[in-house]
Amino acid sequence: MREKEDNIIGYIEYLSDDGKIIGYVTPFTDVDKFRKEILKAAEVGMPITPVVFPDKMDKPLGLPRDIYWPGGFRKEKRQTYPYEIYQTNNRNFVFRNYAYAKTRMKATDYKLVYSGQMERWDEPEDIYIAHNQSNRPNAQKMRSVSISDIIVIHNRSETQAFYVDEYVYRQVDYLLPELENMKQAEPEPYER
């Protein structure tokens, strides 16, 4: 398996109109096939980001210089990090600001409702926005992200928990040990 990965000369990341990966990344080991797929995507206007490893190629791609790539070319594979969303139905503090909820909430009041991947440059606000659109992930099983929800972000070697508050995200890392224990269980369907 490792030998096959060593032969990869590049990837094509297939993107949505807003520049986010929409589900798949295709690796290539042949320069001609790689060039053909890049040109085919450009011809039909498909948003992609080519990720090129020139030191592994036996010849240059030779692409026309007049093609515009909104995401540009990269020389490294896109790196994503996991995140989770926890929501509560506890009527004592659901949809309430942190000042009110901080003395009433416990990690055990929350359920893991979504696990996903975020770009390495994303912030809690980006997750909030993504989960407040009509085409949001897991929309059938969870409500949109709102005040009182907790977003847990795992990036590099650090894990952080954020309480969604009015206009800010309050760091609540003290809840992490209990939330991490809860994560071991499979996410349950969210009850409205």
Write a brief caption for the model.
The protein is α+β, with helices and mostly antiparallel strands. The chain has helices at 2-6, 31-44, 98-101, 124-130, 176-183, and strands spanning 10-15, 21-28, 48-52, 80-88, 110-119, 150-155, 158-164, 169-171.
Poorly predicted parts: none
Rg on CA atoms, Å? 21 Å
Specify the structural class. Answer: alpha+beta
Largest sheet: 5 strands, antiparallel
Output the number of helix runs.
5
**Termini, distance in Å?**
45 Å
Round the mean pLDDT to the nearest integer and report it: 82
Spatial order of strands in the largest sheet = 5-4-6-7-8
In terms of DSSP E residues, the strand content is 25-35%
Quick tags:
single chain; 192 residues; alpha+beta; three-stranded antiparallel beta sheet; 8 strands; 20% helix; elongated
3D architecture notes:
It is a single chain. With 192 residues, the protein is of the alpha+beta class. It is 20% helix and 28% strand. It is built from 5 helices and 8 strands, in the order H-E-E-H-E-E-H-E-H-E-E-E-H. It has helices spanning 2-6, 31-44, 98-101, 124-130, 176-183, and strands at 10-15, 21-28, 48-52, 80-88, 110-119, 150-155, 158-164, 169-171. The strands form 2 sheets. It has a 5-stranded antiparallel β-sheet, sandwiched between helices. Strand 6 (150-155) and strand 7 form a beta hairpin. It is elongated. It starts with a helix and ends in a 9-residue tail after the last helix. The model has no long low-confidence stretch (mean pLDDT 82).
